[in-house]
Amino acid sequence: MTDCDKLAQLVMDRCDELGKISQSDDCLDRRYLTKEHKQANGLVGGWMQDAGMQTWQDEAGNLWGRWQAADPDAPRFIMGSHLDTVPNGGQYDGMLGVITPVTLIAAMKQAGIRLPFHLDVVGFGDEEGTRFSSTLLGSRALTGQWPENWADVKDSDGISLAQALKDFGSDFASIPNAAISTDNLLGYLELHIEQGPVLEQLDLPVGVVSAIAGAKRFEFNVIGMAGHAGTVPMNLRQDALCASSEMILAIEKVAQNHGIVATVGRIQNRPNGVNVISGNTGFSLDIRSEFDEKRDVALDEILLELDAIAARRNVRIERKATHAANAVHCDAKLQSVLRKAIETQNIPVHTLFSGAGHDAMAMADICPVAMLFIRCDKGISHHPAEAIDTPDVAVSLAVLSHTLQNLS
């Protein structure tokens, strides 16, 4: 019988060890196609080999390990997550979803358990998009979604993606070889910290993800008229900042009314002087929902509200769409298996959607996907304070073990 408590401590210790690989001495910062990426692949690959797995690295720099089934023609099932981080990040986002299944496989093999499918674990080289400002590069390579023009995309040091791949020991022209066959592909399962406060609020160690929210992003520019703070009467002002403030509050209200999330995370104001009426204010909008139609209905209302505010305040508003991604719904059958596995641990089953993007979004293009969330302290993520509890990891190991043994 698998000792999940002991395994959980090993997972935590390995997260600690992997979390020391960083390009910065001051924080955890591990980016795509760097020497730290290569070092992380080497460390995790060693753990895979210790577990008796076959290992390889694909053309995009993703790390793979396979627990081979007895039948060489058996179907395959994939688990995994990403090994890159944001600057000043935490040591569980992504990494936990790679280390946990590798650690579990070693224990299952030792217990004499065999699965009727090849179990592949993948450590994606890039999910965060920190280096080349485009997310899910690792998982998109698996699904054959690397356009040719990405070769010329450059990082902040002026190094192109094609050059970075060459320096890493790969070649942009060979990236299509990283795409995997969908023949006999059963699905993809990703364990990930919640990155939110819901499970902690409910006092639950794990939860089943129903969907990954679809997001749209915009940049707005509100154009008024700058003027002297002391000489222009209030009723004659075309104050871009005041108009933007009303617009931002309107966005919040519409989001609350429609049960979606919408965030204005960045504001730029000009001239930005203490005694000058604002003449130009820019702000961002990130709007998300697990249901695309629900998000888009709210978005239409927001745009109408912003236009009405601009007209009433005698300012102009311009907008530019910068990002669009549809929601991804997790496979009903895989969700059912996860729920039953949680029930075997005598834990109430809670289903929630993910507001953050994950590699499962890309993988959904080629196979059924599912996600298991584990609670994290105060919902904090993308921050050094990111933390999880060892007993929760033990629960996730038990749930994953039961899930894998009951997939077929």
From TrEMBL:
CDD domains: M20_bAS (cd03884). InterPro entries: Amidase_Cbmase, Bact_exopeptidase_dim_dom, Peptidase_M20. The keyword Hydrolase applies. It comes from the Bacteria. Its cofactor is Mn(2+). Pfam families: Peptidase_M20 (PF01546). SUPFAM superfamilies: Bacterial exopeptidase dimerisation domain (SSF55031), Zn-dependent exopeptidases (SSF53187). Keywords: Hydrolase, Manganese, Metal-binding. The keyword Manganese applies. Homodimer. Belongs to the peptidase M20 family. This is Allantoate amidohydrolase.
